[in-house]
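Review session, final week

We close the course with one last complete record, chosen because it touches almost every idea we covered. It is Exodeoxyribonuclease-3, a protein from Mucilaginibacter pineti with 256 residues. Go through it on your own first, then we will talk.
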Amino acid sequence: MKIATYNVNGVNGRLPVLLRWLQETQPDVACLQELKAPDEKFPEQAIKDAGYNAIWHGQKSWNGVAILARGEIKELRRGLPGDPDDSHSRYIEALVNDIVIGCLYLPNGNPAPGPKFDYKLAWFERLKLHAAQLLTHGLPVVLTGDYNVMPTELDVYKPERWVEDALFRPETREAFKTLVEQGWTDAIRKLHPNEKIYTFYDYFRNAYGRDAGLRIDHFLLSPQLEGKLLATGVDRNVRGWEKTSDHCPVWIELSE
């Protein structure tokens, strides 16, 4: 079973890129972030024509998450619990092939310190509480998406330039570390513990051409899935396509 995550950076504006990637790589499940479209503007028919059922949680101009699946998909939750006043569309959860899949778009948090950074850390706390709850159910779980965190210096080009950034501040990295220590497996680091792997390249300063990237799109696996992990990868070439997102698709393969 192949599960992918892809921050599309605008699902309608980059629809040709998304459809080409789906057709070329054919993941069984694809989790999307930054739809930047309200619910009624989600390109459901184009996704269906590509062979996928979909659930989505949209928002005008910002945020937005979706889960696509080749087979049956059952929505379990939209929105992260813990703050009824949070209007951001950043989390959606589904059951696919008896696996719980949570698709998330964690806040960026810049500028830090400040209200946006406070919101990021508060959202992280809510995620940790929900993730801990998911582990108690005994079902296999995948938590994937754009976490907006570089967990270690290996995950960022020239880390010394990022020490004050919300994605790399000690508080952010500590929040990710404590999340993983609940019992989750960072899939990419499980199979590639010391390899330089990036999933995001800025549009500026030829970052992609210089391989000056960040690893901020992650797969966390519950204990039931750790032993089923066969492969992980980044479709880096997609970042080089015309009118593409600044993120690369990331994927894992699990044994049945």
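Two points worth writing down before the exam:
Helices lie at 15-25, 44-49, 115-135, 170-180, 187-191, 223-226.
The domain at 2-254 is CATH 3.60.10.10 (Deoxyribonuclease I; Chain A).
Good luck, everyone.
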